[in-house]
Amino acid sequence: MGVHRGHCHCGALAFEFHTALAPAAWSVRACQCSFCLKHGGVYTSDPAGSVRFTHAMPELLTRYRFGHETADFIFCGRCGGYLGAVTEEDGQKLAVINIHAMDPQPAGLTAAQPMSYDGETSSNRGARRAKRWTPVSGP
């Protein structure tokens, strides 16, 4: 299983993405909503993997909700770095990570597929995330 690390610009917030998939096999998605376009969010997840947050300064974690308000988008309160989003479905914490926060950037990634979730209901959104997003391990 491979471990891919990411962090905000100043290093206060970080994650470890654990996956058995090679980067060339990752689902790479570019949401087309105004938020993701403005923040350059390019995402991946692995429902068979895990994400562990390893924040050096958790007090700098800033959360933002918008739209359906079903996920927290995670930012650093110091440098503004955007790590991805977390949600909870059926008692399970799930995450999608922003590939641009990874360091180093994985080699061999496929091109990001543009995705639009316009018109998706909150329940459809939750079901999609439960199927595709990565379980969060740890606190």
Account of the protein in words:
It is built from two helices and eleven strands, in the order E-E-E-H-E-E-E-E-E-E-E-H-E. It is mainly β and 139 residues long. The chain has a single domain (2-121), classed as Metal Binding Protein, Guanine Nucleotide Exchange Factor, Chain A (Beta Complex). Strands 1, 2, 4, 5, 6, 7, 8, 9 and 11 form a nine-stranded mixed β-sheet that branches. The chain has a two-stranded parallel ribbon with strand order 3-10. Strand 6 and strand 7 form a beta hairpin.
Protein traits:
139 residues, mainly beta, Metal Binding Protein, Guanine Nucleotide Exchange Factor, Chain A, 9-stranded mixed β-sheet, two-stranded parallel sheet, 2 helices, 11 strands, 37% strand
| Count of distinct structural domains | 1
Q: What is the CATH architecture descriptor?
A: Beta Complex
What is CATH's topology name?
Answer: Metal Binding Protein, Guanine Nucleotide Exchange Factor, Chain A
The count of helical stretches stands at 2
Tell me the radius of gyration.
14 Å
Helix proportion: 10-25%
Distance between the termini: 21 Å
The level 1 CATH classification is Mainly Beta
Tell me about the biggest sheet?
9 strands, mixed
Q: Mean of the pLDDT scores?
A: 94
Gist?
With 139 residues, this protein is mainly β. The longest helix is centred in the C-terminal third of the chain and has 11 residues, at 122-132.
What is the strand and helix layout of this fold?
Elements: E1 2-7, E2 14-19, E3 29-31, H1 34-39, E4 43-44, E5 50-53, E6 61-64, E7 72-76, E8 82-89, E9 92-98, E10 113-115, H2 122-132, E11 134-137
